[in-house]
Design brief:
- The chain contains twelve helices and twelve strands.
- Strands 1, 2, 3, 4, 5, 6, 7, 8, 9, 10, 11 and 12 form a twelve-stranded mixed beta sheet that branches.
- 43% of the residues are buried.
Length: 315
């Protein structure tokens, strides 16, 4: 909470004495390694990373806290997961002048986690198997028999499902997805990076819930993949926050401060949309931002609908 003029000096000195910072993250190994390598090079503070799904991060955090074990300093994962950590009282507020540079939607009212990058949901297709002129223009077009056996989705994208169905009108949207599953099927795969790679391999020619940054990364590497948007255009923030009982508090604050400043340029270079819109503007499309708190509040209802319609009935 210190805000004196020597704040950064104190943080750096304290972090160097602590020597390391421990992160729990759901970011890909490649992306997080690039970030932590740059942090270590600048400050000489070792970053120790444990990577898992957002769900597993919450489970581990809760179990450790109940057992009075405090190993983690910083969390970095999906917004709804960060909000869960906030509600479990596992985060602490940190005041920082950096917040003034971020998109307003990235800064939560409680300030216990902050959006560091925006994930934009996008459909993606294999450019060797599907022509751009033949792409669907709306979700209704997915009822066409030509998409039978060609569609895929990520297994945990309940928030995307809620956002799309709500925008359509709940009754209409639920009926549409039931009809799509019944007529053409939707393959379910775990992991957004895996899903995009399956598009590239041709196993899933058209996937509905990819992350735009990953499609762009692989497209720039020459893979036969491209993205397109089916309205509504949904996005949510990935977030970062500091553990309430962080064993390396100076290093924890320093890492978050760095991620929201220097780290924003690295994220932009890797095709992310960073929270600092001065570093890279958001795409010129009518984005609908998913509210992490509302997603959590409706999770039981929408998880059941997603399971009943998409997961349990998929063949």
């Amino acid at each position: 909470m210190y805000s004196g003029p020597d704040r950064m000096q104190k943080l750096i000195e304290g972090a160097k004495k602590e020597g390391s910072v421990t992160l729990y993250t759901s970011a890909t190994v490649e992306d997080m390694n690039i970030l932590t390598d740059a942090f270590e090079k600048k400050y000489g503070v070792k970053a120790q990373v444990w990577r898992a799904s957002g769900e597993n991060i919450v489970q581990r955090a809760v179990v450790e806290a109940r057992g009075n074990r405090f190993d983690v300093d910083v969390y970095e994962t999906d917004g709804p997961v960060m909000e869960s950590l906030h509600r479990e009282k596992l985060l602490q507020e940190v005041k920082s002048p950096i917040l003034a540079d971020l998109a307003p939607a990235a800064v939560q009212p409680h300030h216990e986690w902050i959006g560091d990058r925006l994930q934009i949901f996008t459909a993606a297709y294999n450019t060797n198997q599907i022509k751009k002129t033949g792409l669907p223009q709306s979700y209704d077009d997915l009822l066409d028999p030509k998409w039978k056996g060609k569609l895929g989705i990520e297994t945990a994208d309940v928030d995307w499902f809620e956002g799309v169905v709500t925008a359509m009108g709940e009754d209409k949207g639920l009926k549409l997805f039931r009809d799509i599953v019944a007529k053409n099927g939707i393959s379910v795969r775990k992991g957004h990076t895996l899903l995009t790679n399956l598009v590239i391999s041709g196993e899933v020619p058209l996937a509905l819930t990819n992350y735009l940054y990953k499609v762009e990364q692989l497209k720039h590497d020459g893979a036969p993949v491209d993205s397109f948007l089916l309205p509504p255009d949904l996005a949510r923030f990935q977030g970062t926050g500091i553990a309430k009982r962080a064993p390396h508090p100076n290093a924890a604050v320093l890492f978050v401060e760095w991620l929201l400043s220097d780290g924003q340029n690295i994220l932009a270079q890797r095709d992310f949309f960073p929270a600092n819109i001065k570093v890279k503007p958001l795409p010129d499309i009518p984005l609908t931002f998913l509210d992490a708190a509302k997603v959590l509040d409706g999770n039981e209802k929408w998880s059941k609908l997603f399971n009943d319609i998409i997961l349990n009935q998929t063949r």
